[in-house]
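INFO  loader      accepted 1 record
INFO  loader      residues=79
INFO  predictor   begin
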Amino acid sequence: MQWKRRWCVIRRLSPVANSLIMQLYKKPTNKGKTVQTKASLNLEHLLGFDSCFLLQKESQTLAIICRSVTAVLAFEKRE
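INFO  predictor   done
INFO  writer      dumping tokens
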């Protein structure tokens, strides 16, 4: 598997919602500009998060755990 660089924005549509919307972009976006998303995922039935586990030699990781799917992200820096 080859890692691809993407930028993402994760939003909760409502403070009481049990779901997240994750939008992926090929390039970083600036506020106020409309840029077409590369992909959009609706993460429903949120169960929790797991972070900083080792995955394919990447240690700056974040897993968003939902009932039917787990989204795994890797970062270059901890910030």
